[in-house]
Amino acid sequence: MLMKEKNQDIICIWIFPVLSLLLTVGIIWSNPQSFCEGSAGRLYMQNAIQGKIGYGCAGYYGNPINFSGLEPGDLILGSYPDCAYGEYSHAGLYLGNGKVLEGFVDLGVNIQDIEHYRQYQKICLLHIKADKKIKNQAVESAQKYEGALFYPLAFKPGDRIFNCTKIMWLAYMQQGIDLAPDAKLWISPDDFKRSPYASVIGEGEI
């Protein structure tokens, strides 16, 4: 009986890593362009090898950046040191009145106060180059997803699960604007910074 329980424990310990590995191989095999040179997938893998995994060194950095100049529909990017996604690891959609729509693993898609961005070591404010009417429509569209599930690997297709970047990308796509035209499988915050529809209006680093 003891041997049987031990074997079950071994299976439980290994089953998740094996399934994760098989899933990763399947994703790469089906979407090789998403892991080519310069892609977010390749960057994440390279950073992971160097020990840079996930959000990076989270904490409270007290970033003193000035948020003035943001309009409803603009984006805010945040980053901790050693994040795996590239220069930035998180994105939010500014709603106006000091509120931001974003997504977290524990909270799902939710609305937060803009001041919480001061915890990031590095912040970037992006102005979206679109008519104010379109930006307001994107804000209205994005807010419909409040309470939706968060999943880190929320790929571009579908509208049931989200990561922090897919919310605003989909909201703008519904207005005919692709904020991340070069992103193949999923969208990184850095894709927004490189977007032809975005311009940096503020950047601060501690």
What is this entry, summarized?
This protein is an alpha+beta fold. It is built from five helices and eight strands.
Describe what this molecule looks like in 3D.
With 206 residues, the protein is α+β, with helices and mostly antiparallel strands. Helices cover 31% and strands 21% of the residues. It is built from five helices and eight strands. Strands 4-3-2-1-5-8 form a six-stranded antiparallel sheet. The radius of gyration is 19 Å and the shape is globular. The N and C termini lie far apart (57 Å).
Judging by the overall fold, what is the CATH architecture of the largest domain? Alpha-Beta Complex
Helix content estimate: 25-40%
The major beta sheet can be summarized as: 6 strands, antiparallel
Strand content: 15-25%
* Total count of domains: 2
Q: What is the residue-mean pLDDT, rounded to a whole number?
A: 82
**How many β-strand runs?**
8
Helix- and strand-based class? alpha+beta
Strand order of the largest sheet: 4-3-2-1-5-8
* Total DSSP helices: 5
CATH homologous superfamily grouping of the largest domain = endopeptidase domain like (from Nostoc punctiforme)
Please report the distance between the alpha carbons of the first and last residues.
57 Å
Low-pLDDT segments, ≥5 res: 4-13
Describe the secondary-structure layout:
Blueprint (H helix, E strand, L loop, with lengths): L1 H29 L9 H10 L25 E5 L10 E7 L2 E6 L3 E6 L8 E7 L3 H12 L5 E2 L10 E2 L3 H8 L15 H5 L4 E8 L1
Parallel strand pairs: 6-7
Antiparallel strand pairs: 1-2, 1-5, 2-3, 3-4, 5-8
